Amino acid sequence: MLDGFILAAALPYSVLKRTFFLAFEMVFGTKIMSPIIRNSQTILINVNKDLKASVQKSAVPLKKGQNLVVFPEGARSRDRELLEFKKFFAILSVELNIPVVPTVLDGTFESLPAGRLFPRPSPVVVKHLEPIYPEGLSYDELTERVKEAIETEMRRHPLHG
What we know:
Blueprint: H1 3-10, H2 13-16, E1 19-24, H3 25-28, H4 34-38, E2 42-45, H5 51-63, E3 67-69, H6 88-96, E4 103-106, H7 108-111, E5 125-128, H8 139-156
Parallel strand pairs: 1-2, 1-3
Antiparallel strand pairs: 4-5
């Protein structure tokens, strides 16, 4: 639950002002989260209810040359292990022919593990990896390449675990 806030804090303002965050309606469309969503550059989607509308809404900033942060797991890890990556980001990348910049956030699980309400101090590292271009890749292939890049980086430079 900290990832979006940590990533936003790590971005230079010049990048942040051109960056939108994708959020799942079922998690972030709550009364408690509504002030944050309303006052941030967040796009709420519901891929289960209307995939086409979700893709269209998500594509708007990308078509304007802006950034879109997508957390491909769509849920919190319960044990630090990466969950299955949803291919929503790959659909956007392939259809709009834009690169994906895999980003590793290491330490947020230790700061706010599942079941805790308040974060505790913990070192966090944010690392942007080399862009992965979608040319010639299927949605599944791109999804797998991005996941592999993140897994490789986490094994190569583990902060925790």
